[in-house]
Amino acid sequence: MAPKIVMNSRSNLPLREVYEEFVFSRKVQGCTETTIQNYKDRIHNVSKYLDIDMLLCNLTKRHLEEMICKMRDAGLAHNTIASYVRSLRTFLLWCSKEGLTNVIIPQIKERETVKQTYSDEDLELLLKRPKANCDFAEFRDWVIINFLMNCGCRASTVRNIQIQDVATCSPDGRVICVTPFGAR
């Protein structure tokens, strides 16, 4: 008796539903909530350039190439497109492992972008201590700029800093006191 060929019925599902299965599998694997949200955001953004209601079995490399062209025509930055393609590629590789499709999107290399930096004059203005009679916002901004310049931390670190995280240290590195932001 000859073996029967069985089609994977999930490949006859819309791309959107299969993507939801993919996101669920990432949750099961222990991906962080931020990563899960990034996957959801990516498919939302990709859906503007690719019909995610089409059946997965109908998806071709041509559809993916057209999607990239539409993104370029819409004026998306090269690195943004590369980020979307990277997420979609991860999804398609998962589909391939699940036996749902063999369509793979080629990876797009990201371009290194050189961002314009502040001139020495700009830095001097930013780092100049405000006058004693300045308002709170001006002093706060000056503190944040100095904090960023000296620590090199991310904006999220600045947003999440707590009063107990700010301490005054002696020259030898010992903590002298914890200073609330409002105190000068």
How would you characterize this protein structure?
A hairpin with a 5-residue loop joins strand 1 and strand 2. This protein is mostly helical. A two-stranded antiparallel sheet has the order 1-2. It is elongated. The protein has helices spanning 15-29, 33-46, 61-73, 78-97, 120-127, 136-151, 155-160, and strands at residues 167-169, 175-178. The chain is 50% helix and 4% strand. Helix 2 crosses helix 4 (78-97). It contains 7 helices and 2 strands, in the order αααααααββ.
Q: Calculate the mean pLDDT score and round it.
A: 82
Q: Structural class of the helices, strands and pairings?
A: mainly alpha
Q: Give helix % range.
A: 40-55%
Number of helices: 7
Gist of the model:
The protein is mostly helical and 184 residues long.
Give the SSE layout:
Elements: H1 15-29, H2 33-46, H3 61-73, H4 78-97, H5 120-127, H6 136-151, H7 155-160, E1 167-169, E2 175-178
Antiparallel strand pairs: 1-2
Helix pairs in contact: 1-2, 2-4
Main attributes?
184 residues; mainly alpha; two-stranded antiparallel ribbon; 7 helices; disordered C terminus
